[in-house]
Amino acid sequence: MNNFPLEHFIDHIVSLTPSIKQEFLNLFQAVDIGKKQHLTRYEDRAKKIAYIQQGILRGYYVNPVGEEVTTNFFVAPTFAADYSSYLQNLPVRMNIQVLTPSVLLVSDLDNLNVLSEKHVIINKFYRVIVERAFAFQQERQVSFILNSATERYLQLIKDRKQIFEEIPQHYIASYLGIKPQSLSRIRKNLAKG
Questions:
Q1: pLDDT tens across 82-96, in order?
Q2: Beta-carbon contacts of residue 19 (< 8 Å; ≥ 6 apart)
């Protein structure tokens, strides 16, 4: 399993002076959230952002009939937050759940915003993170319009193969917008060649 320290992640996006980097790193604290537990739950205050140094988390919503609909797998190294709720000053709408043994560093989004106002380079870093999250969600929406379930499945294998080794199939089916039986059928058809 990957273990990618936050310092290295930062270095791949921006170049920070040692003092600014330390200020940024000081905002994050290691938290111990066990498998199947939640980083955020529906109607919490939208205030947390987590850097996933190791592990996989899932973002999901609960629809009006009580079904969980998986909309994202946060695979290390990356950040996880309900940015939309935070930016709109709304309670959390997206549940974020730990699926595998994980190493998480968590910060308060308000503190991160204060630091980004103090240092333009932190603002740039934060903007890149939010832009990546937005682009990912937009691509996901487009895939539901333009691609079949089989094409979405093949793209997921290409982009995030490790998910298939560690995540229950019903979460993957939900993410693809299909029932588990349909996922089994897709896998069977692809195996036939």
A1: 999 998 999 999 999
A2: none
